[in-house]
């Protein structure tokens, strides 16, 4: 009777957790050609084609409201000192039209339209193209080179070359005497990055603006010289049309374009771009924010953490996070080595929650141990919509599968499992890091103002401590995914 | 008499003391030169306080001869099992009183037949249907481990004691010039073990454990100014048994500004 009640309860809880696959940002994240996301006074901003843009207070829930004058196409933004340089283009006419384009830049002290300091300077032209030139001067992208302080600007479309000019980071004007350099063909929405001694040129290939049939995708080449040539992974320059894939379609979203990079801290980076069509949002063009990974010095867009059940594996040792409860031996046992080959094969089921959880106390410590696919090692990540989110993801509750035993931060900066009550100590931010592993952070630790994350301080002991990208103690893998 | 001479005198005295034909273990049928028997892995502790080694490992320990506790497998060492096993005080006052080097104590131990060492692999004897208990006299030894890990198996075999199926008890004292906050006790043990600091449970290592440096750690602790008493119990079935213990600070660095004594 008791075990039946437990089973029914577990099923009911499991059904409560069932929810749809996480897709894009939430709110009204509708935008085309988004500029690189800027953080300003605790809010996030991105601008799009046609003027205006989106604002988010947490990086997850987006709505319209950003203000950019000038109309035109495909803006970009970069923070230089305590000001924001915003660029946009007075557009040409597309592939079949005229190609007289102009790249313009302007400054603002703030991106908050409600701030008394919100005022754009007069836009100045920094590059242009003639009607029938081998260039279409739209789709601006900025790089403030962190190694030299130089400010590069790329622009262009499929109509001819992608070009690079250099601007004065103090004024936003074109450097005196600077000549444009051809750096790529057959792409648009270009932008540069600098990472680990390499300069990267990213461009968007494929078909734009065709909704669910858009083949837009983001590729890149790299060079040790900021002026290129930018070479892909098989040795082609981008002038030859080369490019290694950075962002491709997902199962329900198509047409990745207009890349932007956001470095939150060492090891924690995000890529912003748009989907030409999100099938879960009427096939509209939407803002995408994904983890940015680096593999062998090549950038690659990761995926959102999906709701589901995982092993949380420590990178430190490869052990699994688990409830600190008595290990219960599974059925099957030791079969011996000398048995007959003719013995009938039987399938042994995995250990089930109801077989082991009867004696679990309401609250238990958390530890790390050998992964054995046991119930006390299976963690369900369930988004908590009312809890909001962060740049690139919602807050999750992390509970033992089929229960409400939630991973909980304690006031002494340690961990326990406790019944889920929705407190900040039970809400978790999950960031995929640049090396593909994950950082797992509580929204808040009771009585602690510092941002702490889940750390494997010993092989078998987890704790909460400051994040350090250079320590495997702070990194986790999410493995053995099973959908809710 | 300079410090060096004091040290030498203390060492010689200790060696003489330890060499006094100790009768060890539950068998009591063989006289052993303890210092010689343990010389591969231990030296007698000196009167001078010790310091942790370069990585912070504490090498000076009071070790009680193993208490027979037959187990044919280490897979039984769940949290509940070892809490029960370690809850029983082997002799009155052991949990609260720091033992002395050479102190003999009487304990009840679970009888087990000798391991068959002539087989290809040492074979654990078959356990009787019902456990049989007997009285035994065991001795505490103050020792310095030559290695970062304290080789309990070699301690046991050196004294011709139970090599498998045993509980080992350990004590040491950490002396601090001032409070040292936010440190963690970091332990590795083969097999399961529990550790207490000043009478409070600090670390539990359940399961069939291999000894791994920094396998389990306590929560953040304070080593208080003055004396801090560490007690540990290690349980093992078949296989070698050992442990290592150190303190680390919040940055992961070993705590070395401490002194280690056994009295």
C-alpha termini separation of chain B:
23 Å
- Helix segment tally of chain B: 4
Q: How confident is the prediction overall: mean pLDDT of chain A?
A: 92
Oligomer kind:
heterodimer
Q: Looking across the biggest beta sheet of chain A, what order are the strands in?
A: 1-5-4-3-2
Strand residues, percent of chain B = 35-45%
Shape type of chain A = elongated
Q: Name the chain pair with the biggest interface and residue counts per chain.
A: A-B, 18 and 20 residues
Number of beta-strand segments of chain A: 35
What is the annotated CATH architecture of chain B?
Sandwich
> Quick one: how many beta strands of chain B?
15
SS field, number of helical segments of chain A: 2
CATH topology of the largest domain in chain A: Tachylectin-2, Chain A
Write down the domain tally of chain B.
Answer: 1
Q: Main β-sheet of chain A, in a few words?
A: 5 strands, mixed
The secondary-structure class of chain B comes to mainly beta
Shape of chain B: globular
Low-pLDDT ranges of chain B? 1-26
CATH architecture of the largest domain in chain A: 5 Propeller
How would the blueprint of this fold be written?
The complex is a heterodimer of chains A (484) and B (263).
Chain A: H1 2-17, E1 26-27, E2 38-40, E3 43-47, E4 53-56, E5 61-66, E6 73-80, E7 83-90, E8 102-108, E9 124-128, E10 141-144, E11 151-155, E12 161-167, E13 181-185, E14 188-195, E15 198-205, E16 217-223, E17 244-247, E18 253-265, E19 268-278, E20 284-295, E21 298-301, E22 308-314, E23 320-323, H2 353-356, E24 364-369, E25 379-383, E26 389-390, E27 393-394, E28 396-400, E29 405-409, E30 415-419, E31 428-432, E32 438-442, E33 453-458, E34 461-465, E35 476-482
Parallel strand pairs in A: 1-5
Antiparallel strand pairs in A: 2-3, 3-4, 4-5, 6-7, 7-8, 8-9, 10-11, 11-12, 12-13, 14-15, 15-16, 16-17, 18-19, 19-20, 20-21, 22-25, 22-35, 23-24, 24-30, 25-28, 26-27, 29-30, 31-32, 33-34
Chain B: H1 3-18, E1 22-23, E2 31-32, H2 34-37, E3 42-44, E4 60-68, H3 79-87, E5 104-110, E6 133-145, H4 152-158, E7 166-176, E8 180-190, E9 192-197, E10 200-205, E11 216-217, E12 221-223, E13 226-236, E14 242-248, E15 259-261
Antiparallel strand pairs in B: 1-2, 3-6, 4-6, 4-7, 5-6, 7-13, 7-15, 8-11, 8-12, 8-14, 9-10, 9-13
